[in-house]
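Private note to self, pasted from the team thread so I don't lose it. Backbone tokens:
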């Protein structure tokens, strides 16, 4: 009997996971289908960009600056062993543009903006605002979900770019101003090693993919949350966990394809 119960429990979890995956895919397709009305009312997207992007700006800028400063310190100590201190600019820029900029900014975006979107949508469902829209023949996907989706997708690359820019500035402050690395070598090595197509553009693509994944997970968890305080709390927790795992998995997959031929 215990074995049968265990098999039954595994089967139920598998069926529920497959069902939620299909429901999430349908939710994503409906969001894309109703995106046209959101762009016709672009002020809704701008409003949500302020809520998700601008309100996340402080943590992105502060984190980017200190990540760059840590890279400057650690990179200098490592390069000093091989007499390559002048390559500090290349190390900081490539680390930020290729990996740390898109990944860390997406993780911070999921923690701050993603959890907020999930809680907001979940509370709207718990207070029956979603049901009221449907009764008034207002499509909640077009009015509530789609503007937030595109706001997240647009905001994510901009936040990633700011994270990388402030990271480079932090590396400059530590490497050039505090430690004393030659300023000309710092910038010239950076300019010669960073390629727009293979480094900057790939970082932008990563940030767009991360923005899509984080925003879809956040909105779906909020839309699918049970209309209770416990349900909204659980959905917010799942958003942060699932978004973080999705970012790391997608980062490996994208990196394997983008830099495979180098």
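Design output:
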């Amino acid at each position: 009997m215990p074995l049968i119960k265990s098999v039954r429990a595994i089967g139920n979890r598998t069926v529920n996971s497959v069902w939620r995956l299909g429901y999430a895919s349908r939710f994503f397709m409906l969001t894309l289908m109703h995106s046209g009305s959101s762009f016709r009312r672009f002020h809704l997207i701008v409003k949500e960009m302020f809520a998700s992007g601008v309100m996340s700006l402080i943590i992105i800028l502060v984190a980017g600056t200190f990540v760059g400063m840590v890279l400057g310190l650690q990179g200098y100590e490592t390069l000093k062993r091989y007499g390559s201190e002048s390559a500090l600019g290349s190390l900081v820029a490539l680390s930020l543009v290729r990996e740390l900029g898109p990944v860390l900014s997406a993780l911070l975006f999921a923690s701050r903006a993603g959890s907020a979107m999930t809680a907001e949508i979940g509370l709207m469902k718990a207070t029956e605002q979603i049901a009221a829209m449907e009764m008034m023949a207002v499509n909640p996907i077009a009015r509530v979900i789609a503007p937030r989706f595109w706001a997240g997708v647009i905001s994510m690359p901009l936040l990633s770019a700011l994270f990388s820019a402030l990271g480079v500035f932090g590396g400059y402050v530590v490497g050039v101003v505090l430690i004393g690395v030659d300023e000309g070598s710092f910038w010239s090595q950076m300019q010669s090693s960073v390629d727009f197509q293979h480094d900057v553009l790939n970082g932008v693509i990563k940030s767009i993919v991360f923005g899509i994944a984080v925003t879809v997970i956040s909105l779906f968890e909020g839309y699918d949350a049970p209309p209770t305080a416990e349900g909204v709390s659980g959905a917010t927790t799942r958003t942060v966990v699932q978004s973080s795992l999705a970012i790391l998995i997608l980062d490996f997959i994208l990196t394997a394809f983008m830099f495979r031929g180098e």
